Amino acid sequence: MPTASSPPEPRRRLGEHGLAWAFLLPSVVVFALFILYPLGRTFYLSAHANDLFGAPSRYVGMKHYTDLLSSADFRHTLVTTALFVLFTVVPGVLGALLLVLLMESRIRGVRLLRSAFALPFAFSVASASVVFSVFYNPASGVLNGLLSNLGLGPVGWLTDSKWALLSVAVSTIWMNLGYNVLVLSAGIGSIPGEITEAARLDGASGLRLARSITVPMLGPSLFFLVVISTVNALQSFGQIHILTRGGPDGSTRTLVYSVYEKAFAYGSSDFGTASAQAVVLMVVVLACTAVQFGVLERKVHYA
């Protein structure tokens, strides 16, 4: 029963709710300005045709989406995007896992190796892409120089459609290697030492210890890396723009780069088609994330 000096309960709750909204208001405003408004604007533009200056001119409904689904170029872009994700996520996560397991061996200088393998994390996409453009240079690049010493002919790493996507994927794997190694190293560090010691006392070591103890205990970290690497691969732009600009012959034109080409590149201002592609990209990201959470997370929990 409230006393005469205490405020009524409804008034107190109203004050608490008002204070909570006052603290939340800055975040809500930022979220609305930078997430909700651009998202709504994207849907609006995708349903409208635009003039030469990119301004919406008339309502066209689902026309941009139907045109995309019937376009062979767009289907090729989707396939290229899927291949790019496959070429970067699987080798990137498995390669980082292999390196971390090797570094867990009791060898000298392991701290130096951890720092060396984490070094790519310090490079920006632009600087790393410039370095790889030097490696891939057809005339004076390091890779073709090695092939020449082996008596092999030069390879057009970025100019041959058979090699361009794989070359960009290799550079992307290297850029993400440092982050992947740091995440998995932290995951191994969180494994209780008594579990590992008990397994060693039972005779487990090397590959058996990694297969039976380390890798299953790293399930949450691996799941996190697969999801994050997939989203990052679907959104990759900088290395593609610097190394190939979507070429040759569209062999490295992913969905993100196609959005850029339609909206901004070469004086284009087809914001309607670009917005429709952006919506498709959002749906692809959400679908991949939902599948990964529905399949991989369940396996992690039941492992």
TrEMBL record:
Q: Does the keyword DNA-binding apply?
A: no
Swiss-Prot/TrEMBL keywords: Cell membrane, Membrane, Transmembrane, Transmembrane helix, Transport
Q: What is its main location?
A: membrane
Q: Where in the cell is it found?
A: Cell membrane
GO annotation, cellular component aspect = plasma membrane
The cross-references to Pfam families, in alphabetical order and at most eight, read: BPD_transp_1
Domain ABC transmembrane type-1: where?
74-292
Report the coiled-coil segments: none
Q: Which residues form the signal peptide?
A: none
Which spans are transmembrane here?
Answer: 20-39, 78-103, 115-136, 163-188, 209-228, 274-296
Give membrane topology per the record. Multi-pass membrane protein
Q: Name one GO biological process term.
A: transmembrane transport
Family of the protein in this entry? Belongs to the binding-protein-dependent transport system permease family.
The protein's name in its UniProt record: ABC transmembrane type-1 domain-containing protein
The organism encoding this protein is Kitasatospora cheerisanensis KCTC 2395
